[in-house]
Amino acid sequence: MEPIRTLRSRTAVLAVSDIDTDQIIPARFLTTTTREGLGKHLFADWRYGPDGVPRPGFALNRPEAAGCTILVAGDNFGCGSSREHAPWALTDYGFRAVVSTRIADIFRSNALKNGLVPVLIDPATHRWLLEHAGAEVSIDLETTTLTLPTGQAARFPLEPFARFCLMNGVDELGFLLGREAQIAAYEARAGIA
Hints:
alpha/beta, 7-stranded mixed sheet, 8 helices, 7 strands
């Protein structure tokens, strides 16, 4: 994972509430154990018609959404099943953060473990973002704030360990492996074989 300290991007807005993981990445694409290539199937049933042609009216197919790394979604993002493929598809597509007023707990946990920042914000800030698609915002993990182009900043919760991992570009296993010498020293002192 790449370290994330600050994200600055225009926003792609998908103003739909209760987006579940099957809508994020339909089950028929869950035949892989790697994340590469899942981005092309992100929101597949919404992005493409039955003939595979992109639907021009879908938010991510519009030219102004190209290159956006911050997705603003409606309330209750990532509900449904616990598939890890959902954050994989979002990051493979190019998103580094998802912003909403509510993000499902299991999705949030999977996102944090896979380098996707789940940003929970207050309803007023969320409403502003929904009404201003394409606004350039910044997300600062050091201060855990999302700053609008107006200068208004909104704080968001982020557990300290998850924040450390995101800012240092490591997952939980990488964190433990980075402390292999300390673990071995402790085991030697404790007489653990």
